[in-house]
Amino acid sequence: MTTYRASDLGGPEPTPIVSVKPVVLPAPQRGEDLNVRISAPVAGTDLPIVLFAHGFGSNLDGYAPLVDHWASHGFVVIQATHLDSKRLHLDADDPRKPHMWRYRVQDMKRILDELDTLEASVPGLAGRVDHSRTVAAGHSFGGQTAGILVGLRVGDPQTGVAQDMSDPRVMASIQLATAGKGGDELTPFALKNAPWLRDQDFSHISAPGLVVAGDKDELPLSTRGPSWTTDPYTLSRGSKSLLTVYGGQHSLGGISGYEAAETTDENPERVALVRQVTLAYLRHVTGTDHTDWEAAQAALSGDSHPLGRLESK
Fold first, then answer.
1. Which residues are paired to 134 by β-bridges?
2. Helices 291-299 and 268-285, interaxial angle, to 10°?
3. pLDDT of the chain along its 313 residues, tens only?
4. What is the pTM of this model?
5. Phi, psi angles (nearest 5°) of residue 35
6. How far is CA 257 from CA 58, 65, 170, in A?
7. Which SS3 state, helix, strand or coil, does residue 201 take?
8. Using CA atoms, how far apart are residues 294 and 284, in angstroms rounded to an integer?
9. Residues 6 or more apart from 267 whose CB is under 8 A from it?
10. Cβ atoms within 10 A of the Cβ of 30, count?
11. Which helix (H) or strand (E) holds 197?
12. Among 10, 122, 136, 186, which residue's beta carbon has the most beta carbons within 10 A?
């Protein structure tokens, strides 16, 4: 099998990184302080930012295969532990549970409000970050979080109201293996356990975005099968791209962590594909460099590549 390596794209060589955690941001209305991790290259200036939202139950220590790769190639990656994390052990009847999707977005906005504080917490990072180039990214539940920041409208499960919770400080998004539209295609399991998926409107998303979907991602949330996770691409407006990962299940080969227990389709080649294409996209959409994104588009056009397909609109 032909593998898809970083050398196919060119781009910069990786550099050493530094990570600082936890940086604690007081959040009294949240009921828990917000714990944040910042990962950044030890050198370089005008560094763009990636706000990364973890999947349901994870935490700020997850997704090293992506986070380390992005940071070592010139990005400041900021992660939080959201309220749905298993580390926080919320009681089953905790009144915050129905609003976890909203708390996640508020977490990200709090991070954006406190960028100076977070930047100062990492030795040697102050003055090297470009706050004007911020991309929101997320996996699974985190993909919805990232989508909301660029215009996804979510109907509140209790009121039915779908507010615009987008943030102009976010220029683009990367949504990995995330949910599609609601309505009749949702399963009873989804309606009970993820009521915030009942009404999702992608039509207001006009910011650039990359959607990554596995063609074997059979989730218990929709009756439609793997194509459900392509909705953020097909139903949104503007400049969008879709990476379809052949054979990819929900963890896309293992992006959630090295030897992570939840990975059901462990495959280093898939992980390499996802991190290389996402890095190429990050460099492209932030205006850092376009050549590696153009190389990815050429290598993954049509159905000729054994690992996946990349299309754009």
1. 49
2. 140
3. 344 453 454 557 899 999 999 999 999 999 999 999 999 999 999 999 999 999 999 999 999 999 999 999 999 999 999 999 999 989 989 999 999 999 999 999 999 999 999 999 999 999 999 999 999 999 999 999 999 999 999 999 989 999 999 999 999 999 999 999 999 999 999 999 999 999 999 999 999 999 999 999 999 999 999 999 999 999 999 899 999 999 999 999 999 998 777 888 999 999 999 999 999 999 999 999 999 999 999 999 998 899 999 999 9
4. 0.95
5. -90, 130
6. 10, 6, 25
7. strand
8. 9
9. 247, 253, 254
10. 16
11. none
12. 136
The tokens for 188 are 């009873």
> Using a CB cutoff of 8 Å and minimum separation of 24, what contacts does 232-235 make?
232/143, 232/147, 232/152, 232/175, 232/178, 232/180, 232/202, 232/205, 233/209, 233/313, 235/180, 235/181, 235/202, 235/203
Tokens of 208: 């650039």
Residue 141 structure tokens: 């539940």
Strands 76-80 and 47-53, sheet pairing: parallel
Determine the Cα angle at 309 with ends 308 and 313, to 5°: 155
| CB 230 within 8 Å of CB 263 | no
**Quick one: tokens of 231?**
């909705």
Q: Is 24 helix (H, G, I), strand (E, B) or coil?
A: strand
CB half-sphere exposure, 82, CA atoms < 13 A: 30
Cα–Cα distance between 58 and 63 in angstroms, integer?
9
Burial 177-206 (b: 16+ CB within 10 A, else e): bbbbbbeebbeeebeeebbbbbbbbbeebe
CB-based contacts of 272-276 (< 8 A; 24+ apart in sequence): 272/3, 272/4, 272/5, 272/6, 273/4, 273/243, 273/245, 273/307, 273/308, 274/66, 274/176, 274/212, 274/243, 274/245, 275/65, 275/66, 275/69, 275/70, 276/4, 276/5, 276/6, 276/8, 276/9
Query: How far is 196 from 155, CA to CA, in rounded Å?
Result: 7
